[in-house]
Structures
1.
Amino acid sequence: MRPVCCTHMTDTSQNILEVRNLSKSYGALQVTNNVSMTLKHGEALGIIGPNGAGKSTLFNLIAGTQPVNEGQIILSGQDVTKSTPALRCRMGVGRTYQIPKPFNGMTVLENLLVAATNGGALSLPDATDKSLEILEDLGLGDLADVPASQLRLLDRKRLEMARALATEPSLLLLDEIAGGLTEDECETLVQTINNIRASGTSIIWIEHVVHALLAVVDRLVVINFGAVLAEGDPQETFNSKDVQEIYLGIEA
Ligand SMILES: Nc1ncnc2c1ncn2[C@@H]1O[C@H](COP(=O)(O)OP(=O)(O)OP(=O)(O)O)[C@@H](O)[C@H]1O
């Protein structure tokens, strides 16, 4: 395990994402504190940390829904720190939200079409083909014409992921997608994420369900009080004394 602050890779062609010295405050509350990290093309990175540590905020900064106070975000070699969320989405950043936010008045398919025609910029016929394919892959094929408001939790989470995939992301940000699922459902979700990953999509996954996360990611970053506490091999990092003590409150 490498301690604290992730080192930068200077060869940007290998990195789909570089986050450089990011800081973010809300009033007096510093939520992101000088965070740096990189993600290689095709890599899957896990993020864990206590509640309120600033994990989702990091996604908001990367996706552009919140402005940074300091630092830089480099996407495929291009500085997008000041770019709009829409532009970042067109450049390949797809995300899910911790609390699924579908358009409840629309069907499952219509939800994907909105994402595919706007975020993904596909024509309607292409968007329809693409959306049906994604729904099939994610086990939602039979629910295409069902209103989103009628879905059970697992299917709402799948829809959240399907909407992100409909924008054709090269970088997928998954925010606590496994919470509240049964063990079997969790296993299905892990398979789905591994399939997405096998198709070449780079992934950053924030998750409290650590065993699910460890079944997917190549590398783990631990955030505490807005800063990087540790990063490295997933199991080794998770088992380290600092992480066990600070993240789980266990005295190792
Ligand atoms: N828009 C905002 N305005 C003010 N405070 C905010 C805002 N967004 C987040 N915060 C605060 O920033 C801190 C970090 O929130 P964040 O959601 O990033 O944590 P998290 O690590 O994702 O937590 P959890 O694991 O509980 O989801 C919290 O104290 C939160 O209340």
2.
Amino acid sequence: MTPIIEVKNIKKRFKKQLVLDSVSIEVQPGSIYALLGANGAGKSTLLKIITGLLDSDQGNVLVNNLTVTKDLRQVQQLFSFSAQTSSVDDILTGYENLVLIAKLRHVAHPKQLALDLLVQFKLTDAAKKRVADYSGGMRRRLDLAMSLVGNPEILFLDEPTTGLDPSSRNDLWQTIRELKSQGKTIFLTTQYLEEADQLADKIGFLGEGKIIATGTPSEMKHLAGSEKLQLIFLTSEQLAQAQTLLTDFKVQLIDEVSINVELPDSMQSVLKILHLLSTNEIEPNTFQVTSPTLDDVFLKLTKGASL
Ligand SMILES: Nc1ncnc2c1ncn2[C@@H]1O[C@H](COP(=O)(O)OP(=O)(O)OP(=O)(O)O)[C@@H](O)[C@H]1O
């Protein structure tokens, strides 16, 4: 399938600081792409370049096969951009904000559209409240609702859940999933590994100005290694006996009574290991299978830098 967004070899420098160094990204239509990176990695800068708000020094961006810098007017019809700073007007109510933006975008029946969006984003009860009195989660939902006025194909969301509590974050994730199920393409930036894991079809890790790794969440986790079986024994003698039996496996000592065993082929290896131990009358006290997380990938890629 032809990508709906193609970022090709983007370079951007602010004075002496090279912020983006040959960044290339492809996003498929109807998918969620998460650009993951630490504070200051260059995520917002890249979003501004993709949406035509900022010029790059090198490279180009195609949206629906249109070059952003040449065909900006046409490209702007295809997307909306929710920046980190909310675009809602505090003095107006949620309903008034939506009607205003709908009128500015010359949408037919702005009042009806505002009412429909308030229902879709579960804001009907707060429709007549001034936005100044909204919670952070309600503001972000209103922001998203406003970005849908004009029915754009692509939504760019810059750190959509930063500053939200876990419950509001979950609500917003659900809303983003619903937008994808309606066929929207979503390009979001985040510094939360869990958010990328929960939402993205494809992730790009931005580090030191480059995409240092890219893939689906499960492909990314494979970068951090295979699944492991953690075995905890009652005594160190049992552990030592187990080690002598597991010489065909990669074993990592955790403490004097626990080990991690790498599982090259998941369940088959688990069954083999437990069978081997039980036929030799060594019973672990507890065991569990652990899968690598995106945190493991990030630590491996950045050698411990914090996100
Ligand atoms: N207009 C500008 N002039 C000079 N430097 C800038 C400008 N905009 C961004 N920068 C610098 O570029 C780097 C990347 O900033 P950017 O805002 O793109 O990062 P980010 O990944 O979005 O970070 P955050 O998660 O904190 O929003 C930072 O070091 C920032 O100080």
